From TrEMBL:
<dbReference type="InterPro" id="IPR050807">
    <property type="entry name" value="TransReg_Diox_bact_type"/>
</dbReference>
<dbReference type="InterPro" id="IPR011051">
    <property type="entry name" value="RmlC_Cupin_sf"/>
</dbReference>
<dbReference type="Pfam" id="PF01381">
    <property type="entry name" value="HTH_3"/>
</dbReference>
<dbReference type="InterPro" id="IPR013096">
    <property type="entry name" value="Cupin_2"/>
</dbReference>
<dbReference type="InterPro" id="IPR014710">
    <property type="entry name" value="RmlC-like_jellyroll"/>
</dbReference>
<dbReference type="Pfam" id="PF07883">
    <property type="entry name" value="Cupin_2"/>
</dbReference>
<dbReference type="GO" id="GO:0003677">
    <property type="term" value="F:DNA binding"/>
</dbReference>
<dbReference type="InterPro" id="IPR001387">
    <property type="entry name" value="Cro/C1-type_HTH"/>
</dbReference>
<dbReference type="GO" id="GO:0003700">
    <property type="term" value="F:DNA-binding transcription factor activity"/>
</dbReference>
<keyword id="KW-0238">DNA-binding</keyword>
<feature type="domain" description="HTH cro/C1-type">
    <location>
        <begin position="16"/>
        <end position="70"/>
    </location>
</feature>
<dbReference type="InterPro" id="IPR010982">
    <property type="entry name" value="Lambda_DNA-bd_dom_sf"/>
</dbReference>
<dbReference type="GO" id="GO:0005829">
    <property type="term" value="C:cytosol"/>
</dbReference>
<protein>
    <submittedName>
        <fullName>Transcriptional regulator</fullName>
    </submittedName>
</protein>
Length: 196
């Protein structure tokens, strides 16, 4: 066994225990869910029993995770830098764990468009939080004020646009793949982030 194998073994054992504790389960409760004895589970968590693939699969299922997630190793590239689009006042961070997700930080200075024809609708979901200032979210025929530290989440099949109210505002948004694609086709201010 190499040092890396030993580190992975230790990581998996710690992860099993941490997931059990996070669920608020005792050894007895998880053992019952995984159909293993309490003493076997205790020895697995404490490193006194060899990790067997069939038991890991069963434990992963009982912990409501996958075997891949249970044994994945930490990546060295934890910290990432944003891609900066100065022309549109944007910073973008792709989400490594889900390539379909993008995080966007945007400064807005203009109100959302008054003309409903300039609002966008497309498949997907968006989530945003206002970091500073006040934003106005036009969603269908409704108008929402979103103030500093407030968040909004909505399906993007509703026609929507966002802009600033009473001065500049800064937002941080999370866009799934469909929402990002919908905005890539539109560089309209107030309609969301333009293409990366």
């Amino acid at each position: 066994m190499t040092q890396d194998d030993g580190e992975l073994d230790s990581l998996v054992r710690k992860r099993i225990r941490a997931l059990r504790v996070a669920q608020g389960w005792s050894l007895e409760e998880l053992a019952a869910r995984a159909n293993v004895s309490q003493s076997t589970l205790s020895r697995i968590e404490n490193g006194q029993r060899r990790l067997a693939l069939d038991q890991l699969v069963t434990l992963a299922r009982a912990l409501d995770t996958t075997l891949d997630q249970l044994v994945e190793t930490a990546a060295d590239d934890v910290v990432t830098s944003p891609m900066i689009d100065a022309a549109h006042g944007l910073m973008r961070w792709p989400v490594k764990g889900d390539p379909g997700m993008t995080v966007v930080r945007q400064r807005m200075t203009v109100p959302p468009p008054d003309n409903p024809a300039r609002m966008r609708a497309h498949p997907g979901r968006e989530w945003l939080v206002v970091l500073s200032g006040t934003a106005v979210l036009m969603l269908g025929h409704k108008r929402f004020r979103v103030e500093t530290n407030q968040a909004a989440e909505f399906p993007t099949m509703l026609p929507h646009a966002i802009g600033a109210e009473g001065g500049p505002c800064e937002i941080l948004g999370i866009f799934d793949r469909d929402a990002r694609r919908g905005h890539q086709r539109d560089g309209t201010p107030g309609a969301g982030p333009p293409a990366p």
